[in-house]
Amino acid sequence: MGAPRLSSTPLAGIGVRYDLTTKERRRLSVVAHRDGARTLSAYEEDDPDACALSVRLTAGEAEALIDAMMPAHHNPNLLSTTELGLVAERVELSATAHWNGRLLGDTRMRTETGVSIVAVLRRAEAIPSPKPDFRLAGGDILIVIGTREGVAAAATILARE
C-alpha cells in the first residue's frame, strides 16, 4: 500500500469530515467542526460502519494531540493564527454550488464576512491570492482566513446551491 488514503467530505453547517483507511484497513475519521472542536472516531475492524470509539476534543485538546503525534511539525517560529483570534480553514466548493463557474468577486466574501481567501487549490495546482476576476469551479478548495465567525459565514455562503 502506498500513501494513506485520506478523503474529505464537507458537512454543511458543521465542518468537514476526514476519513482515513490505514494500512491495516482500519477506518478512522475526524470531523473538523466550525467551532474548532474535533471529533475523532475509530470503527470496528470487522464492520467499518460500526463506530467503536468516538471522542470529541476541544480545539486545544486537538492541537495537543497533533503535537503529541507529530512533534516534528511544531515550529515556534510559525505564526499561530489562533493566538491572534484568527482561524484558517479549507472550504471545498461543491459541483452543485451556486458559485460554480462564477467570479470570486461575485461572492462579496470580504465585504459580507470580513474573511480573506488567500489561495485556491485546484487539482494539483495552488493559486495564491486569487483576484476578484478568478472563476471558481466545483471541487476548488478555498483557503479562507478570518475570525471563526467570519470563516463559518464564508462556508455558509460558499455552500449555497
List the helices and strands and how they pair.
Layout: E1 5-11, E2 15-21, E3 27-33, E4 38-43, E5 51-57, H1 59-69, E6 87-92, H2 109-113, E7 116-122, E8 125-128, E9 141-146, H3 148-158
Antiparallel strand pairs: 1-2, 2-3, 3-4, 4-5, 6-9, 7-8, 7-9
Would you kindly provide a written description of the structure presented here, covering whatever features stand out?
This protein has 161 residues and is an alpha+beta fold. Helices cover 17% and strands 35% of the residues. It is built from 3 helices and 9 strands. It has a 5-stranded antiparallel β-sheet with strand order 1-2-3-4-5. A 4-stranded antiparallel β-sheet has the order 6-9-7-8.
The side-by-side strand order for the widest beta sheet comes to 1-2-3-4-5
Low-confidence segments: 73-79
Oligomeric description of these chains: single chain
Please provide the ordered H/E string of secondary-structure elements: EEEEEHEHEEEH
Question: What is the 3D form?
Answer: globular
Range of helix content: 10-25%
Radius of gyration, CA atoms, in whole angstroms: 17 Å
Helix and strand composition category: alpha+beta
Count of helical regions: 3
Strands, total number: 9
Main beta sheet: strand number and arrangement? 5 strands, antiparallel
Tell me the fraction of residues in β-strands, as a range: 35-45%
Kindly report the average pLDDT value: 83
Distance between the termini: 37 Å
Quick tags:
alpha+beta, 35% strand, 4-stranded antiparallel sheet, 3 helices, 161 residues
